[in-house]
Input
Amino acid sequence: MNYVDGFVVAVPTANRQKYEQHARDAAAVFKDHGALRVTECWGDDVPDGKVTSFPMAVKCAADETVVFSWIEWPSREVRDTGMEKVMKDPRIQPDVNPMPFDGKRLIYGGFRMVLDE
Output
């Protein structure tokens, strides 16, 4: 079964167009290095929680929007090799494709799929 990298981040709402361009540019790099699919989702109904929530997890400010995204790979092995190449790819370096958000508040992790219906 495929392997997924998941991400949650707070993006300044005013930077939506910059974020979407950043994501499109990055998606091309990930796909060139083995990713099957890159999905970006702009928060539309992301409630604040009392104990935990997406906004709390990324310390989302009033002028920011939560973004949820994932990259699907054919396997963990392809992901590990591909991600190593992605990090060295000149097209994704901060001076070429700067992150339009605070990367210190980006949450990410790799997940083995257990169900895909």
